[in-house]
Amino acid sequence: LLGLAQSLLSRYERGVLPDAPTLLRIATLYKVSVEYLLEGKGPKKLFVVREGEQNYGGYVKAPILTDRIAAGSPILIDENCVEQETILLAREMLAPDPSSFFCVRIDETEGESMQPALSPGDLVAIRVGEIEPEEHEGQVIAVRVEDACTIRRLRRQVTPDGVQWVAMPDNLNAPGAESYIIDGEEVAIIGRVQFWWHSQKA
Fold this sequence. Notes:
mainly beta; 9-stranded mixed sheet; 3 helices; 12% helix; globular
C-alpha cells in the first residue's frame, strides 16, 4: 500500500525510524497521529488538514520548500515555492510563532559539510528570525551568503580586534566546507535550525 522497498520495511521492523514524509504516509493510511505512531501516546486520531482550515487539533501545518538548502557551498533557494506535501508538527514545538517556520531538505550534492549531524536528504525545520549569537553559540543555523543559503554551526572566535561570530562547518574535509564571518550584510543569519529528521535510504 505504501510502495516501500522490502529492505526499508525490514529496517523499520528492526526499530529504524522512517523519514518524516513516510511517517506522514503511514499515519494517513492508518488514520492515526504521528505522535501516536512514534510513542504510542498522545492523540491517536489523525488530524486531517483541509484547505482553509486553521485549527488542526493542536498541530500546525509547516510548509516544505521545493528547493533544497546547501550544507556545503551556498545555493539559491526560493522561499515562496512549496511542495504540495506538508508536515504536521505539535503547536507547542513551534511556539511562540508557528508561522515563522519552514521545512527544507538538504541538497544531495552540496550537503556533506555538516556531517555527521546532518546529511544530504535530511529534512530540517528552520525558525526564521533574528537571534542573539551569545544565546545560540554552538547551535545549527541557516545563513545567507550574498543571495544564496547554506547551513552551518554558529561559533565564537576571539581575535585581537575583539569577538567575531563565524558560521562554520562540522566536517572540514567536505567539499564546500568554508567558514563565513557573520557581518549582518553579505553574510547574515536567516534563523536557527530547530529540528531535523534523518533521511532513510534503502
